[in-house]
Amino acid sequence: MKSKRTLVGVRVVGALGCLAILASLAATGCASSETRWKSDDPVVDLRNRAADPRLRVSAVDQARDRAGTDPVAIASVTRTLKDIAWTPAEFPQLRLAAITSLINDPNPAVAADAREMGKLMLPREQERPIVVYLAKAAADRGWTDYVPSLIRSYARPLKAVDDATRVEALAVRDLSDGRPVADVVFEVFLDPPRMPETYGMDWAKRFRADAWDLLGRLDAEGTRRIEMLAAAPGGSAGDVVVENIRTCLRDLKSVPLTGEELSWLTSLRDGTKPANVVWWADTSAAVATVADKGPFHMRHAEAIRWCKANRPQWLTMTKSELASELKSRLSDRTRHDRTVDTAVKRNREDFAHWEGSMKWADILAVLTIDDALANPQVREGLVAQSGLDRKDTTTEYGGLLGFRSEGDSRIVLFPPRPGQRQGDEKFIASDDMVAAGDLALAHYHFHAQSQQNGGYAGPSAGDLVYAARYGRSCLVFTSVGEGRLATDYYQPDGVIIDLGSFSGVLGQ
Predict the structure, then answer these.
(1) Confidence check: pLDDT of 4 > 50
(2) What is the pTM of this model?
(3) What is the CATH number of domain 327-503?
């Protein structure tokens, strides 16, 4: 008989893997365990986590059949099946069997309760067979109240799965009379479900953030959202979030594209923050002078504001003229290409490759960042911070690059909090860093595990996901020698530009 350790290992492989492993166990003589663990009470078998998984799956229907119409027995079986359904560590096939039994229970009260349970499970459910079952059940039975939960599930990206063919998308479409999914998602954003606040969670805000994140994939450039905002009913006039988005479109000529950008906008528009109020007025005036050079994203606004006060000539230049300035700067700099990640396709890191796809404001942002990094005190500070990072093997360090009110650049370090440290090759932005970054020009972090770390110069795949999630211009500084850092710029759409290396010693 296989040990309990072996069965625990089975749980993490998913429903299909679980069945395959169970079949293998049976082939090696473990089938007798079903009879060894079997009791006279199927509810006891269901509760026995040491029993053969096949025995427990078969006990689902047996327990319900034996309960018949006895209210006490039904309550016992229902409680047991709900416990199994809600426990991620249980075998996926057993959880699916429990959910299926509850939703199809002949007792209307049990089935209705299971319907509500499925709606609550969907947004965070990790097992795809369970998501598929719940989505199809909702579509087949016309459960339109499942649409917001399906959207929250759909908001979680899946690798190697086409967004258009995901079961959540098909279910939302079927439950909405075939209307475009993006339109339905936008409607949920405008009017999220009203649910009581629990454990400090504002559920309307959570539904809105997830809906907006999903629209970031379905409407990557924000074009459809701008159209839908214009057509939104007048009843949304008192909605602060919608008003903020419309104000952003009017004043900054952009809309937030992800849930994190929406939170950023909400903080920027906070009237209790005097610096933000002043910034918004100055930035709106600056953006108005270059409105014809769009499209813009929120991350472009600070660069435009600073250039209006410090490099006004750049705002009069064409894209090709800005590109010529950047090429001139980069021409004699030493590059350090990332050589790890050889098993995956790497993005190019040279400006010549990306120039054609970059916006006018993208190039302006790179030039502004390059000017900010030219400050000797900033360079000295970055090298000092990289040394601190190298000594701390529990995490990567990072922070914010921005400008003081006088116009000169500065950096602010935000080491991840103790509970957010996930190893020496990952940076986690703390809540403090995000909250302090309203007016930042860029987010940065280090690859400083050793002084000669040039093979890791440039962003990792996870770093690119970070830029896309937060909608920010980003920098990664990599140690390539004593007191020397390689600099790579990257942005949400995957553009990477090697800005060369610099020394952090004053005068060099």
Answers:
(1) no
(2) 0.80
(3) 3.40.140.10
